[in-house]
Amino acid sequence: MKTAIVTDSTAYLPKELREQHNIHMIPLNVIFGEESYQEEVEITAGQFYEEIKNRPDLPSTSQPAIGKFVELFESLAKDYDAIVSIHLSSGISGTYQGAVAAADMVDSAVVHVFDTEISCMVQGFYAIEAAEMAKEGKGADAIMARLQDMKRTMRAYFMVDDLSNLQRGGRLSSAQAFVGSLLQVKPLLHFVDKKIVPFEKIRTRKKAVKRILDLFDDDAKLGAPMRAVIIHGNQESEAEELKAELSEKYPHVEFYVSYFGPVIGTHLGEGALGVGWYLK
């Protein structure tokens, strides 16, 4: 039984990691005016953060066209018996629904579509685990069951450093952004019922990062094998330093560093930081 693993670009898995695990990726789009770019293909995270500094308006974003899904699924069907397609939360994007619609159009392979109810490399953890199982010859039903089980321990918390993107994107009023900036408020966000919602409001970046690490410690101190990722908005050196510090403190945790790419970075902005984890 050969099972192909697909995810979308908002998993922000580096190309070498996708190639190592044989994970196929379908990109979402970020749109500056009349120009549309496929993230992770035509525009990198670094290029994106440079671009938004020179633009008065935030870009818009869009999900992959259903035809792109159909094209990918039909291509994979030539070599695989089944396809597991893993996507960002259906509560913040129509990508999952697009994959479901495309799956119904493909007769040459059985396509299973999974809603991670989350995004970024925490979503990528589902794809990595699925790919590891596929490599072992596990079937799509077993993979889907494991992915569903992973939700029990999957956690992620994000800190927004600059409120201006939330304000420019219409998710925060100008007055709220102004007052929040004056008070140095750093909102902590997480996913609940497939949507991004506030968890806590914390004064100063340092305290916000400490709060995220305390939440992580609640699970990590139990000593069970875990995977975790530090996710950054164009703050790679800070993320790498944090990874080194945490790796020394928690030797039983397998740490990664990833990033908020163009689609998610449009809303969270530069300087955002997050940590996600689950029990292996």
UniProtKB/TrEMBL annotation:
Methyltransferase keyword on record: no
Coiled-coil features, chain-numbered ranges: none
Gene3D superfamilies in UniProt: 3.30.1180.10, 3.40.50.10170
The entry's keywords: Lipid-binding
UniProt-recorded Gene Ontology molecular function terms: lipid binding
A UniProt-annotated Pfam family: DegV
PROSITE patterns the record matches: DEGV
Alphabetical list of SUPFAM superfamilies matching this protein: DAK1/DegV-like
Membrane-spanning ranges: none
Domain of life: Bacteria
PANTHER family per record: DEGV DOMAIN-CONTAINING PROTEIN DR_1986-RELATED, FATTY ACID-BINDING PROTEIN TM_1468
Protein name: Fatty acid-binding protein DegV
Organism: Sutcliffiella cohnii
